[in-house]
Amino acid sequence: MAGGSTLACVAPPNSTLLDGQLPLSKQPFNVPRSTTNDPAQLSATNFRIDACRKVTPSEYDFIARGSYEPTMTDTDTSKLTSSAQIFSPNNTLPQIRAIHKSLHVAIEEKSTRLRTQVGSSYRDLLGTADTIVHMRDDNDVVQELLGKMGGRCGRAVIGSKATGLANFVKKENKSAASIAARLRLLDACVLVVGRILKGGGGLGDNVKRGDRLVLSTKVLVLSRLLIKSLSDDAADLSSRRAIEAARTSVSKLRRRLLRNVEKVFERAGNETEREDVQKALCAYSLATSSGARDVLRHFLHVRGEAMGLAFEVEDHNRKRSAEDVVQSLKLYSRTLLDVQALVPGRLSLALSGLKSHPLLADPSLKQLEGLRLDIYERWCDEEIQYFTPFVRHDDLDGSQARDMLSAWSEKGSEVLLDGLKKTLDTMSEFKLIMELRTSVLELWIRDGGKARGIDPSEMQDSLREAINSRMLAVLDTKVSKLRLVGSELSSALGRWKDGITDEHVSIWDDEGYDAALAGGAAPFVQEVVSRLYGRNDAVSKAAHSYKSWYHVIDDVKEVVEQLRRQRWDNDYDEIEDEETIEARQKLLSKDDPQMLQERLDTTLDKSFKELEDHIQNLWNERAESSRNGKVAMYFLRVMRDIRHQLPERPSIKKFGLTIVPSLHEKVAVAVSRPALEEFSAQGISQRVVVGRPLWDGEPPLPNQPSPEIFQFLRSLSLSMSDEGVDLWTKAAVSVLKKHLSEQLCEMWQAVLLENSSEEQVAPKQKDAEEEKSKEEEAKEDNDDEDTDEEDAEKADENKSDADEPAKVEDPVEENQKPSLSAEQKADIFTQWLFDVALLRRCIGNTEEASSSPFQSLEDKFHQHSKLEDAAAKQRISKSADDFWQRTSLLFGLLA
User: Fold this and answer.
1) What is the 3-state secondary structure (H, E, C) of 225-286?
2) Which of the listed residues 652, 671, 691 is the one where a domain comes to its end?
3) What angle do CA 263, 268, 271 make, to 5 degrees?
């Protein structure tokens, strides 16, 4: 045995084995020779069973547990070529038996397979034979039938039949019934075409306009065929008349059809209406027998004329509007998109579909109940029945269509831009131009980017340039209208009338308030404010002119802000990249507003400079006139209202400030002239100190001003109030005080010079003057109780004297005046010292008070007053300050 194994039959330890008996599994197996009797140490590799010996109990249990399985050699029977290979010493008996069994199984399988294949082939052979028999029978039948047909298709037989059929058809077509039927069909065609074009014809509401045009065109073609056929066949007069009437109606219907086609072409619909445009193109081609090229040429021609007609304003009742531009731009953009979408592919297919079958075989015609083709069709001759429309659908390729569209787009853009400029020329409001800009650019951004082969930025830049040019022109025109304010000033000065043009109504005057209150609170408040700020009729006109002009700046600011806030994204088709969107956003929402703002700033600077120069020239012409004070007040009020609402520009902040000091100076001179003349006539020439008895202290010093000074301040304050409290700004009061200081100091300086000359000329009269002074003092002591009455009489006298023109005294009269004693002069200078201290407090309290001329004048009066110590001067100064604090509210404008 191979492998050191022996063939054994395993049996239980107490069983008896017979020859050839295989207990348990009855399968031969190799059992290794056992080397131990310990069941725990048995394994498949350490024991062996000799041939036909009894196994030990431990070996039997090992085999029974299934831990041992016999090993068999797998042999491929298909590789066995001889019996020697089967009975080779390498194969055991069980293996030989297994090979034998495998061979039997293989033989049986092959036998079964061969039997199955032979049976199938036999059945197929039987079916083939049966088919051959049937084919032979059919062949005999066909040969018999062909023989009969050949006998009936002789040349003479066919010729006679064709001649007879032709004669029969000719007689039938020319019969009265055939003519009558075709006339009825022709009338029905005319009626149906009219109804279809009107929207009826029994087609329902779901049929689109393009389908109606194509259907009516087919019926119209059928009408022309019927007219041609009847013209050849009809002979009687009534039929001829009916045919002529039908021909006239068909001609009218054809023109009407073409007008409807053009209306479809002129309509700038959306993409859903493109199908109607395609059907209208087919209808035009069928109605005029035009090819694809002619159809496209006509379509572009109609669209171009429609763009031009959108801007026509021959009718005087119609004005140009933004809708014209939008409509024309829609036509332009939709034409580009429609042509690129329809030509040449879809249009060629649609045109070829028109000739795919005969006209009378068209299902859409058969569905028209009004034609009754089920009855009248058989009465039509062959030319009508087999007529197929012929149109050229392949005479236009892509390159030709692009060339035609490119040439048309150039002309169309010129028409569009020209109409846009003409429409913009009629617009003078920023709001309208802004709305037009938004509509046009949004439409082009939405549709312009869809067109292939065309750069939308070119048209966008052209539209933007035209609109920006108009906006800048309108801006220049509106800003330059600031000159109207100067024109209003010139007009007011030209028609100036004293007491009317410069009339100033007091705020406390009751007249006019009742009429203002009748209109409500707003007119009343407006009346009060106008009076407070001195806005008479002349000033109000100039101020109103400026305020009306100032709305231009507000409008431009609003437009600039709107331009900056606008977004120019294509929300309809997100086909643009971020760079394109950002570039367009920068161009339209940053560059354009910035350009408009820069132009506004430049124009404002120029206009305000021209206005300032104009006002300066007007003032220079009238600065030396007799009414220069009133004119200066007018200019000040107008300049104040203008400066109250100036644009925020660095170069305009100082508008009119150069002319203001000159105006203030003339106003100060005009207002102070009456008070100065009155004081010069009465206050300087005083010879008696009326308030001498009221002096107090040791030494006696004045504690109130002289009546002349008080009257001077009162007259000055009233004069300032009468001209208007609105004039007296800090700068104006400062100029007035400076002028008054100079004038008063000049007057008193003249008095000091006169006093010095008198002292040199008449020293001998000193004693007489002292005696006279003593007598006057005694007299004043007796009249202390009547001081108030004398003051009142003195005030009345001063008032009466103020109404009279000042008289100029000649040197002779001055020499004739009685001379004053030294004590009287000292009292006068002491009183004047108090008056100057008071004036320095109320008039000399300007920013230049340190260099006030009253200071030197006060020192000179102190010298002439014979006051020895400085304490008296300080007492006078303090008294003047106290008096001004008590009475300053009486002279509020000076305070």
Assistant:
1) HHHHHHHHHCCCHHHHHHHHHHHHHHHHHHHHHHHHHHHHHHCCCCHHHHHHHHHHHHHHHH
2) 652
3) 120
Strands 30-31, 6-7: pairing is antiparallel
Judgement on whether residues 709 and 624 belong to the same structural domain of the protein: no
392 and 478 in a single domain? The answer is no
Q: Specify whether the CB–CB gap between 647 and 551 falls below 8 A.
A: no
pLDDT of residue 39: 45
pLDDT tens, residue by residue, 202-217 = 676 677 888 889 999 9
The full length of the chain comes to 895
Question: Above pLDDT 90, what percent of the chain?
Answer: 24
**Residues 824-881 pLDDT 10s:** 888 888 888 898 889 888 887 765 544 567 888 888 888 877 777 788 888 888 999 9
H/E/C letters for each residue in 719-753?
A: HHHHHCHHHCCHHHHHHHHHHHHHHHHHHHHHHHH
Among the listed residues 258, 627, 240, 270, the one whose alpha carbon sits nearest the alpha carbon of residue 446 = 270
**Rg of the chain, C-alpha, whole Å:** 65
Quote the CA–CA distance of 453 and 406 in Å, as a whole number.
Answer: 9
State which of 584, 619, 652 marks the end of a domain. Answer: 652
Please state the φ and ψ torsions of residue 30, each to the nearest 5 degrees. -95, 125
CA 508 to chain CA centroid, Å, is 52
Q: Which domain holds residue 489?
A: 451-501+536-652
Task: Look at residue 128 and tell me if it is in a domain.
Answer: no
Please give the Cα distance from 56 to 46 (Å, whole number).
Answer: 14
* Cα separations in angstroms, 416 against 271, 461, 466, 471, 673: 22, 13, 11, 18, 71
In a domain, 715, yes or no: yes
Do 410 and 555 lie in one domain? The reply is: no
Asked if residue 228 belongs to a domain, the reply is yes
What confidence tier does 364 reach under pLDDT thresholds 50, 70, 90? confident
CA distances from 79 to 41, 43, 100 (A): 42, 36, 14
Q: What is the pLDDT of residue 41?
A: 45
Helix (H) or strand (E) holding 30, with range, is strand 30-31
Residue 695 or residue 54, greater confidence: 695
Amino acid identity at 223: S
pTM greater than 0.70: no
User: What pLDDT does residue 111 have?
Assistant: 87
271 contact partners, CB below 8 Å, separation of at least 6: 337
Question: Given 3-state DSSP classes, what are the helix, strand and coil percentages for the chain, each rounded to the nearest 5?
Answer: 70, 0, 30
Please give the Cα distance from 167 to 301 (Å, whole number): 51
Question: Do 593 and 721 have their domain in common?
Answer: no
Q: What is the dihedral of CA 853, 855, 858, 859, to 10 degrees?
A: -120
Tell whether 638 and 679 lie within a shared domain.
no
What lies within 8 Å, CB to CB, of 362 at 6+ separation is 218
Residue range 402-428, pLDDT digits in tens:
999 999 999 999 999 999 999 999 888
> How many structural domains comprise the chain?
3
729 and 616 both lie in a single domain: no
**CA dist., res. 216 & res. 362, Å (int):** 13
Cβ-proximal residues to 330 (8 Å cutoff; 6+ apart), any chain = 268, 443, 447
**One domain, residues 600 and 696:** no
Q: Are residues 628 and 752 in the same domain?
A: no
Contact 563, 589 (CB under 8 A): yes
Q: Give the C-alpha distances (Å, rounded to integers) separating 450 from 265, 574, 575.
A: 20, 11, 9
Structure tokens at 800: 């009466």
Contact between 28 and 38 (Cβ < 8 Å): no
Q: Kindly state whether residue 446 falls inside one of the protein's structural domains.
A: no
- CA atoms of 865 and 823, how far apart (whole Å): 9
What local confidence, expressed as pLDDT, does residue 574 receive? Answer: 55
With contact defined as beta carbons under 8 Å apart, do 314 and 246 qualify? no
